[in-house]
Specification:
It is built from nine helices and ten strands. The chain has helices spanning 2-40, 52-65, 84-97, 106-112, 128-139, 204-214, 277-286, 291-295, 303-311, and strands at residues 44-47, 74-78, 101-105, 143-145, 162-165, 193-196, 225-232, 235-238, 252-257, 270-271.
């Protein structure tokens, strides 16, 4: 029994060492990408929502640029239907770091007539594309740095690390630039810009392991808590002002957490008892469905449909 216990301990140690080595490699790559984006772009911005992936990006930016300030502002496109606890965490984090946070509202795009108002209960998630492109034009950004990962969704898996957008903000997956030997082409023409993904090669597991290692604080919504929910299709959906129960739906209280955060109209919690980073990581290691596949109503479309949204400017 002692020999078996010793062998198990050695395997656990080796697994921990392998995980740490992988995180070191991913961290080094991401820092290199952040520095390349800052050096090669005239006016970059880092997309920051207060979610776990963008919080990991902030920690990586700290390692890349501190003790100086970030060489770019933080930018968030707010649908007006985001979870309040995440918005509060976003504002507190930006203030704590002393970094400039720019917020652009989908409601302003609706008021300008840029997009149609979906109504008080309609989803504004897809409308973010227009507001984002309006922010790019207004502030003349030539690079947007974001926390998208290839493991999230099939269309995102097609993206380059430095992903080119034309003068209309559109993406053509058939005309992407080659990226060989970690050499990134940051050249853009007038009106064009780049989407830059420093954690493109990370997985959900990598993100949570990095959060655990770095002690990164997260909004409480990521951990198990009681919340009023309804069952819609095969998903749970929180009961909120923009997602009230429909006729025939029963409200119940369940212990849930969010694997990803976004617009309340399309972001679903999962049943969970995981109330610590270690417990969430343990659940992540055995998850069979990707975080977006399990928790986003708007991702229940075909790969072609999501790709079409990305072609139009969706992040």
């Amino acid at each position: 029994m002692n020999a078996r216990a010793d062998a198990d301990a050695l395997r656990a140690r080796d697994a921990a060492l392998d995980a740490d080595a992988r995180l070191n490699w991913l961290e080094s790559e991401a820092i290199h990408i952040l520095r390349e984006a800052a050096a090669e772009s005239r006016a970059p911005a880092l997309l920051f929502s207060g979610g776990k992936d963008s919080l990991v990006l902030l920690r990586l930016a700290e390692k890349a640029f501190r003790p100086a300030g970030f060489p770019f502002p933080l930018l968030h496109v707010d649908t007006g239907h985001n979870f309040p606890e995440v918005i509060d965490f976003r504002d507190a984090t930006a203030a704590r770091l002393g970094e400039r946070l720019l917020v652009r509202q989908v409601s302003d795009s609706i008021a300008r007539g840029s997009v149609a108002d979906p109504g008080p209960l309609g989803s504004r998630n897809a409308l973010q594309s227009v507001t984002l492109l309006e922010a790019v034009a207004e502030l003349e950004f030539d690079a947007l740095i974001g926390g998208a990962r290839r493991d999230e969704e099939k269309a995102r898996a097609k993206e380059r690390v430095f992903s080119h957008r034309d003068a209309f903000g559109q993406w053509d997956p058939r005309r992407q630039r080659p990226e060989l030997w970690s050499l990134y082409n940051a050249r853009v023409g007038p009106g064009q810009h780049l989407r830059v993904f420093p954690i493109s090669n990370w997985t959900e597991r990598d993100v949570w392991q990095y959060i655990a290692r770095e002690g990164i604080a997260l909004p409480s919504i990521y951990f198990a808590h009681e919340r009023e929910v309804i069952v819609r299709g095969d998903r749970l959906l929180a009961v909120t002002a923009v997602t009230p129960p429909r006729p025939g739906e029963t409200v119940r209280r369940e212990r849930v957490r969010y694997r990803t955060v976004g617009d309340m109209t399309c972001t679903c919690p999962v049943a969970s008892q995981a109330d610590t980073v270690a417990a969430v990581l343990a659940e992540t290691l055995v998850a069979r469905i990707s975080e977006r596949g399990a928790t986003r109503l708007d991702d229940r479309t075909s790969e072609a449909a999501m790709e079409a949204r990305k072609r139009e400017g969706y992040f």
